[in-house]
Write a structure and sequence with these properties.
Blueprint lengths: L9 E6 L5 E6 L3 E2 L2 E2 L3 E3 L11 H26 L5
Antiparallel strand pairs: 1-2, 2-5, 3-4
Length: 83
């Protein structure tokens, strides 16, 4: 199984030597005025993540996005009346 072509609004991030799309992202995925972390991959970036800088970058970006989302969610919750 693989991705042959992408829908509008998706961007190719990585291709295999045979042209198979191995990674893609969502352009401008909105979440409360910010950007969402949206990345699809067709391989196992968790495999040897500590020895591959590209794989590590994926996990670091995901962690950063998670922390940012928690901060946004907490800030929005504290602004609601009655909380």
């Amino acid at each position: 199984q693989g991705v042959e072509r992408l829908a509008p609004g998706l961007r190719i991030e990585a291709l295999a030597p045979d042209g198979l799309i191995e990674a893609f992202s969502v352009e401008g995925a909105p979440i409360e005025g910010g950007k969402a972390f949206a990345l699809g991959v067709q391989w196992h970036p968790e495999w040897q993540v500590s020895s591959n800088p590209h794989y590590l970058a994926i996990f670091q970006a995901f962690g950063d996005a998670c922390r940012k989302r928690v901060m946004q969610r907490d800030a929005n919750a504290s602004q609601k009346p009655g909380l």
